Amino acid sequence: MTATLIWILVGLVAIGLYLSWTAGRLDRLHTRIDATRAGLDAQLLRRASVAQEVATSGVLDPAASIVLYEAAHAARQAEEEQREVAESELSQAMRAVFGEVAQVDAVREVPGGEAAARELTEAVRRVPMARRFHNDAVRAARALRRHRKVRWFRLAGHAPFPLAFEMDDEPPAALAERAPA
User: Can you give the pTM of this predicted structure?
Assistant: First the structure.
């Protein structure tokens, strides 16, 4: 009888340790989601800021400047519920404005334009990477949260269900073809 109680106790301790390890893993995934979301927000803000800077620099034609500025401003001011749409619209505006190499060359020709074009190219390239990192973290947390043991024992606590950030982040052709200088 004593041996049976010891084995039951050992089994319960093992189950408790396993559940604790799973809860810790889920907590680390939620922390990773928060960190990748902060990185994504920083890259989106950087892209919008650089786009606004280029739009107000006077090197683009007035119509392109207005389109780019308004899209960048809307992306920076968007509420959380409308953020994905606003960022997608900024991507579309950037593709419209920088669809041809001539526009990027016009930016590069003005004083300080080379640095602005390089910064814009880097910002445009970093957004898809940051979004991919965030969505990968979300995917991993969702997969773990779908397990029965996590649902039955409520190991996720009160953490909200993680949501992926879906947006159009295809870079403009003229910026994608160029390697950063």
Answer: 0.89
